[in-house]
Amino acid sequence: MKTIKIKMLGFWPSLDLNNNFIINKLKKSFNVVFSDNPDYIIASCFTKEFLKYQDCVKIFYTGENICPDFNVFDYAIGFEYLDFSDRYIRYTNYMIPEEYGEDYELMLKKHLVQENFIKTKENFCSFVVSKGSGNVMSEREQIFHKLCKYKKVNSGGRFLNNIGEPNGVKDKLDFQSKHKFAIAFENSSHVGYTTEKIIQAFAAKTIPVYFGDPNIDKVFNKKSFINCHDFSNFDEVVEFIKKVDSDDDLYMNMIKTPAMLQSVSLEDENMKLEKFLIKIFEQPKENAFRRDRIGYGKLHCDNLLDLYYKNSTTTNKWKYLKKLYKIIKDK
Which of 48, 47, 69 is nearest to 331 (CA)? Predict the structure, then answer.
């Protein structure tokens, strides 16, 4: 079994480096060794330390709305709808079985309810967000405040908490399941950027009020949720929510509609990712490089690396990261 030396960088703190959706797939075919002198870097978006490793094959994973920079990375796993030979695969974060497998399976069964199901809904609408967006009111804040003028929206997250649990609810699924609707807004809007928020709302057998991916209805059945992109403004969204809220038959028709246009197998999607990864690592390391390491690609990486070192002592790391992300996205 081939030995591969790997370093993982920039993932969320709760990720178990020895037991996760990437490493578990690789362990089936390779002897995985974690090393500070790696041949391969697997990096996510919460660091730029990967810039220092210039002689490694680099694979980028993002769970955020960030387009991969293929001048920096050889391969990428993300939300974008891209066709880039063997260098990219679209793999939405709600497909991670270790994180959202249970939610996904519940979503697929969300329409299997009894006629008296609506009587189990004690509350109007839920809202679970951990933090705000700063000085500018985000779209999800706007819809929250507009809906609150109609009926109370129970905010169970740390942000705008109004249920007496300032640290947020411990069981999001249970909390959402007590409500008829759930605000399921992404933190930004971009084609392809669809996270776990909508599937968790479906899993709770509630109607998601969604904003984020403008093409969300290519995957999810538009008759099963309220897509804010179908309306001219949030005032129209609120009026439609009022209509559904006051019409039990309409509400139940939406609940009884399957969430997805076509059921997508979690197992199949993860097998595609596994095959993508195996192709990278089964070839000789030198053959696995895809980025330009000689011309403009190298110049681009050198400029980013120079910026990294200039900012390496800053106390405000997030200010630096935002600046660097902007440069990458502008490219």
Answer: 69
Q: Give me the pLDDT at residue 325, please.
A: 54
Q: pTM, whole model, 2 decimals?
A: 0.89
**pLDDT at residue 309 in the model:** 74
Return the structure tokens found at 149: 């003028």
- The edge-to-edge listing of strands for the beta sheet with 31-34 is 31-34, 3-9, 40-43, 57-61, 75-78, 88-90
pLDDT of residue 300: 84
Instruction: Measure the CA–CA gap between 84 and 90, rounded to whole angstroms.
Output: 11
| Cα–Cα separations (whole angstroms), residue 237 to 190, 228, 230, 234 | 19, 6, 9, 5
Q: How far is 57 from 20, CA to CA, in rounded Å?
A: 20
C-alpha span between 37 and 49 (Å, rounded): 14
User: Over the chain, what is the mean pLDDT?
Assistant: 91
Q: How confident is the model at residue 124 (pLDDT cuts 50, 70, 90)?
A: very high
